[in-house]
Amino acid sequence: MSEKNPGVDYNSKNPTERSPISKYFVRGWWTYENDVPITEAMFGDTVKFHLQTQNIPNGKDVSLTLFDDDTIVNTSEDKNDDKIVLVYASNGQPVTKDTVQENKIVKTITLNNFEGLLKEDTDGALELYFKCKYENEEVKFPNPASNYLKVIGKPKIIFVNGHWNRIAHKLGMSPGAGGESYWKYFTGDVKRYKNSADAYFNIKSEEPLYIDGSSLWGGSESGGQRKTRGYEYAKTHFDELKKGLGKEKVYFISHSEGGAHAAGICQYLTEKGIPIGESLMLSTDEGDEFTVEGNYPAYQIVAGYLDEQWLTKKKMFAIDPVVMDNMVKGITKYGVYISTGTFTSVHGATISESVFNRVAKMKNTFVTPALNSKGQAISITNPLDEDWYRIDDNILQNKRIDLYPLYRSTEPFRERQD
Q1: 131 vs 84: CA distance, rounded Å
Q2: How many CA atoms lie within 13 A of 120 on its CB side?
Q3: Which residues contact 293 (CB under 8 A, 6 or more apart)?
Q4: Is the pLDDT of residue 214 over 50?
Q5: Phi and psi (nearest 5°) for 198?
């Protein structure tokens, strides 16, 4: 036994923790459900606390009180350890005693609703230990304090897919399922796409959550109805949505019909105090049939392409025929760009790693009023970027576009006026 630290036995390759000067308690430690030792877990995880005892008969009760440390590990708070009352999941009654069997106690704890224990000035983590009391002896475990359980949150990415159809999928026209399969259809490598999303959002998230935002069949729901469905989904699945977050933010990437569904989820989460880091809305369908609240960053991007006219060889801009040019009210910024897609592929063109860079550029692209050679008012980008057809409410003067489509007009297009 080392004289420097009587609480650790160094005779084995892996040091074994021993209780210094304790009549009844030997050691305490945290594990996952599978009994693998840990010192860190996430909000929402289920963990175990193991207490090894001695000289306590079977059937005797020990008082175990959970605390969040503010005095040893994290001294930046109020320097008062916070008592945490544990309750039985079955009836909500407080847990006051635990019974010793064969010199041990094992407590299983699900770290739900622990986020409310975080103070405004914390590092976003809890450091948990137990005060273990039997008769007149009280000891803190784990020991040393470096083995307290650090409970942290991590940001989360939620993917909300659009419409899918098994028959169309067999014809090579669309995804054949929702969830992860939807995103794999477009990206080929969902993990790499998620890592690119992490880089874009400047976060390091865990496994993403996939939500199916598809209607039963295209046209069976309006955008407003899908937003309501998303809101109700968030109500029902709130624990799953916030699991593991702590004080971190949720990030959304939605496509097509999934945009309205994601907007409903974002609305409910913000009402419940869950911060939205950003909602990235790709090729959002029926953007004129729902709104976003404007209390979180939301960026909408739509792809179009250049259609060369057969006789004149002039290039006319053509927008995604599925969603058209419908900016969602309340959006932070809206952009329509010129992609390399075609009539059949442009709708899925926004589900691309390159779009992350494009949206980042859109955030820093501004519109400046100008005059053409005839003295007519036009709009151009600043800095000049001729990959864009529209930014927010402004149709842009772009030398790559010869013909501009005229929607809701008797004329099919207008020519660019330099």
Answers
A1: 11
A2: 0
A3: 266, 267, 270, 330
A4: yes
A5: -55, -45
